[in-house]
Write a structure and sequence with these properties.
The protein is an all-beta fold. The protein contains one helix and 16 strands. Strands 1, 4, 5, 7, 8, 9 and 15 form a seven-stranded antiparallel β-sheet that branches. Strands 2-3-16-6-12-13-14 form a seven-stranded antiparallel β-sheet, with no helix packed on it. The protein has a two-stranded antiparallel sheet with strand order 10-11. Strand 10 and strand 11 form a beta hairpin. The longest helix has 4 residues. The protein is globular, with a radius of gyration of 16 Å. The protein starts with a strand and ends with a strand.
Length: about 200
């Protein structure tokens, strides 16, 4: 998928060795938005017109004494300021939830929450922050018309699912491309070490 560091990071914030990526706190070097901390990888583009399914697969572990929310994985379209079509958030309550917005392209003032995806319920374990590894699999089925189904598994069990359906309202911008992001993205900086082992993207349809 042509993974690269997203917007650059502070020295030493992302390292790669023996099939494992290790993420640490970094200042957010991207523009726009209100999130101050970003240590992320981004993939190459996926055509909005492609009818294709992918599975993002990795084993993640988070080690921190703090309970900050952070974004673990995203399907982005390059917008500034609003939540992308889909973000997967590791919450302060140690569950997972989706973030999703529609955007009028006016920074934070142009955001409207996508209640359909945000309303999905989590049915999984309480996620520990003591370095416990979890097998994470996010399956994405793109429909070739700007929408996609998403399902999330932890250790082989389904825990969260939903669908991103683009709005028909012409006030909202239309996605021109999609790409994946993985790492730690948070509104407030906090000390952590996250490892992602065996990361791969598999074509499954």
């Amino acid at each position: 998928m042509g993974w690269q560091t997203s917007c650059g990071v502070d020295p030493g914030a992302i390292s790669h060795s023996g099939g494992a990526y290790t993420f640490h706190q970094s200042y957010n070097h991207c523009s726009g938005g209100i999130f101050k901390q970003r240590s992320e990888l981004s993939s190459g583009n996926i055509s909005v017109k492609s009818r294709v399914s992918y599975a993002f697969d990795t084993t993640v572990s988070m080690k921190t004494s703090q309970s900050n929310d952070f974004i673990l994985f995203q399907v982005h379209d390059g917008r500034n300021g609003c939540s992308p079509p889909m973000s997967l958030r590791w919450t302060g309550g140690n569950s997972l939830r989706f973030d999703s917005d529609y955007t009028r392209g006016k920074g934070m003032a142009g955001c409207v929450e996508n209640r359909g995806l945000r309303g999905a319920g989590y049915h999984g374990p309480s996620l520990r922050r003591d370095g416990t590894p979890y097998h994470l699999r996010v399956t994405l089925a793109f429909d070739g018309q700007g929408g996609f189904d998403v399902s999330v598994q932890i250790n082989g069990s389904g825990v969260l699912s939903g669908r991103y359906q683009p709005s028909n309202d012409p006030q909202f911008l239309t996605s021109k491309r999609f790409y994946m992001k993985h790492g730690v993205y948070s509104q407030k900086p906090f000390d952590y070490e996250m490892r992602s082992v065996g990361m791969q993207v598999l074509r499954v349809g």
